[in-house]
Amino acid sequence: xxxxxxxxxxxxxxxxxxxxxxxxxxxxxxxxxxxxxxxxxxxxxxxxxxxxxxxxxxxxxxxxxxxxxxxxxxxxxxxxxxxxxxxxxxxxxxxxxxxxxxxxxxxxxxxxxxxxxxxxxxxxxxxxxxxxxxxxxxxxxxxxxxxxxxxxxxxxxxxxxxxxxxxxxxxxxxxxxxxxxxxxxxxxxxxxxxxxxxxxxxxxxxxxxxxxxxxxxxxxxxxxxxxxxxxxxxxxxxxxxxxxxxxxxxxxxx
Length: 254
What we know:
254 residues; mainly alpha; Heme Oxygenase, Chain A; 0% strand
């Protein structure tokens, strides 16, 4: 069967919900960034404090972008019930003072522990150019893609709890400068990410009603994995290989 005929037949035969969910979930074991060599080094205690700081500094750019992409998503829908549900994601990261400090604040506790000045972190001037490009590509994707495809890009949260558990155990065991308070961001995500992923998965399964949209949703999960992978490629190139670009954070001794 030639490729053209196969695509025509697929377009006329969308996956059933179970098949569609299986296709979405299959992306993780193949592409999720828990497979990246940099994470193996991070979780295995093989990095210096300066290298861990470089990771935390660059990852802040991603953390800061999450509520912006979620606000962009909400701005595109007239469905009040959907906005009421999705806004939890913004609250999770930006907080709802004074009751909830939010994930970004918890991330800054981590960068504080690593000796980074808060203004330097939040200014993001020391972040790698590739980090900034990858993060903003994700925000633009959510702005520009069909709403259900934009929602699907968040489904890497299906795979997140395992990497958070690995990170908590590995970093607590291997780095003396890390403690339970510093790992609070990841501990909170163990409950937040599954809640968000469950809602997004049902939304995507309900509204991706054609095979074309289903395929686009699977590609959205792959795209998001690529965004996460690209950030680690940049970190590995700069802080393991040692090719730090001009203007980027430079740990002592590198």
